[in-house]
Protein: Insulinase family protein
Amino acid sequence: MKLKHLAVVIATALSVSACGNLTAQHKNMPESITTQEQNKVFSQDYLLEELDNGLRVMVVKTDYPDLVSVQIPVSTGSRDEVEPGKTGFAHFFEHMMFKGSKKFPQAEYSDIFKNAGVDNGAYTTNDYTNYHLDFSKEHLEKVLEIQADHFQNLNYSEAQFRTEALTVKGEYLKNNANPLRKLLSAVRNTAYDTHTYKHTTMGFFEDIEAMPDQMAYGKQFFDRFYKPENVSIIIVGDVEPAATLAMVKKYWGEWQRGDFKSQIPAEPKQKAPRYQHEIYDGLPGHWLLVSYKGSNWQPAEKDRAALDLISELYFSNNSALYQELVVDKQLASQMLTYNPETKDAGLRHVFIKVDDEKNLPLVRDAINRTYAQARAETVSKEKLDNLKSNLKYSFINEMDSSEAIAGTLASYMHFTRDPEVINQLYQSFDNISPQDIKRIANKYFIDSNRTTVTMSALDKIEGFEQEVDLAAAVAKLSEKPAKVGFSILDNSNDSPLVDVNFLFYTGAAADPEGKKGLAALTASMLTQGGSQSRSYKEIKKGLYPLAGSFAGQLDKEMMSFSGRVHKDNAAAWYALVSDQLLNPGWREDDFKRLKKELIDGIKSSLKASNDEELGKEVLYSKLYPGHSYESYNYGDVSDIETLTLDDVKSFYKEQLTQAKLHLGITGALPQTVKERLIDDLTQLPEGDEKRLTIAEAPKLKGHHATIVEKPAKSTAVSFGFPIETLRNNEDWAALWLVRSYFGEHRSSNSYLYQQIRQNRGMNYGDYSYIEYFPRGMFQTKPDANLGRSSQIFQIWLRPLRSNSDAHFATRAALYELDKLIKNGMTEKDFQATRNFLVNYVPQLVASQDKQLGYALDSEFYNTKDFVTYVREQLAKLTLTDVNRVIKENLQTEDMHYVYISGDAKDMKERLVKETRSALKYNSEKPAELLNEDKIIQDYPLEISTDNVEILQVDQVFE
Structure:
């Protein structure tokens, strides 16, 4: 006979033994085929009928030719062994059932089965005993006839009984040599006081030794439990259901129903953790078993399913604990879990094999801290969903033969003899949320539910007295945010204003080819769209009395969602905005509205009415051909038009992950809101990629120009080239100082401003940059959260009156740049600019939200806080440093120019022909200036015809 070996159980416990919710029993079911719905894990059609005597019969026709599997689960196991001194009889009778009957004694039916090729076996568990036979379909009727006679007319002699008792004793001794079985015996005996789960299916050894003299009790046991109301017959294979059912009725229909009911003693509530050390002479290494009492079989509760998920999440071979103990630190050589399904509250086990005795307390504490972690944190929804999917499809994949299907059905049918329990189980899995995992972990994984067993050749384990206090461990974990997969910058203070910034290291650079604008549309859906429970109109209405804000900002590598609210309104504000961010409604009306607004923003707000920003964005595009920075942050119109709501959902799932999230908090955010916020964010997918991988900027060679033609009465100019000096570079502060001196944004003190606007009155302002600065025409100071892995040196000349003036202003800026590179800065200018910046830099972080934004940027660039970093770097600078940095970073040999002009042909002709661009003034000018103009008006830009591109404005970002 075959017994279900523990090692197999441990290896497959979650995939075939997890238990969940049940439906009510079917009474007097009709003889009919039940057709399964396609979304169920057990999807085979089946016939299920309960005979008048209470026997349940299930027939499943499969497409596997010729083969049939018959499984006969009897709903009795070691749990039913309630009389003192009578343990082990459920398993013993599994043996005795092979002795046969008068009609088919063992020798005779064994010969029949041998000739028919019948594979015949059985196994016993806590709650049921299962008999399984596999054979060719031509032998089905004979198998049913023989088994029916055995179940109804079992017959054996006292000699056979006594002999088999000796065999069972030998099996016990053999099994007890297995450390895992010995540990299980010890932990059950220690953990239970009155319940029959106190003994294993083998029973207590003293009871096994007494079995040979228990012939009368043996007959009583058989008469009590081997009755049709306790039995199911499952027939799976190449059979005809109706004819098969008729065979069962023919041989099993007259079997008489019984009336015995087991009275299982209730187990009192355990009041304290328990520990037992088992001595195993000659055992190599040391074994540790940590077991917690779990749930009973609960049709209407989530507990059992959640406990199975917890075991897989935290203790499987894929778990962080396994990696730590077995793979990384190698404190343990084996780690196994075993969670048998039980009708009453059973034990959930973690076995660990440890070579060095001193590591036993470390490993035990690590296990219990992991249980504390399950209680303290909220598991990632993505991780939980992935596990559910794995369990579901693993189950389906294993149903690949008639034997596998029948065996699986037998392991579930014994509870209520209803196959639908399988689908109810996986529905129960589906209904488990991250919050359920945490709640149920806190219910069961408490100190008073724990029993620990050690086993080795030692008399005792040194240093094992003090165990982890789970409540204290959970409290300690809760002092800080639960372990999360994202970065938290908590700058809480006493300010009544609360600012929160959800900064993700992703953005337009993550837009797939052909879907430019996807990041922008996603960001809009999360701040200007509704949630699952509220429309966007309702959210705005809710924010209004709170005076709360929530908005998004998008760049190449950063997507920021930030908001502000008074601390008194923080809870109500968070309820609204978290719903948007974490439970987006993905409403079709929001999607259509925001998609239309995005397209309109490119066509109307940028291309039609903002020549200055248009020129700057075209410059970036032209400096990054074929690069992830090439496209406009808000996309290309033709791409946006093809985007779907599913595209947005996919981007959200793939890019807005915990790995990419950097949460910033400042102000007096109430602790309860903060804890909920952090807890909720663990619902985001964990993700693996922490930030986007950005290639180096393409190499620019020579002078190039792009002229965008549109109806315009003035000409906007931008030009520049890529640079490698980023904020975390040792030369950045020096280059930032040079930029400020040469063209501080919206400052009349900058050199270009003085030369082009102040002295010549050509335009409204002239500025230079070494970091991306969008929306410059609307604000005097840069926004935070525009961190990039690649930057450009850029000069922005605000619109000029004509193409000729634009040509002159470009020459003037280039002329001044050449002078700067050649001559460097003067000591006076260096000192003045440094003094300005030392005093000016705090203005960039003058508000609380700016401080938070810049602090998050410092994490991106891995620098100190911005003001400290800049001031320290500036303090170390010398004029020599600055002039070296100028020569190493600035150049005029490779440049791209962008013009927004009403006459592109004229602008191109001026550029390629190096047309003189003389200035005319309406007032007298100093001779020195006029003499300089004569140089500038013919200053060469050296742009060849082949390097000039004319674009109509409707071609740009389309």
Q: What stands out?
A: The chain has four domains: 36-252, 274-479, 487-681, 703-913+942-955.
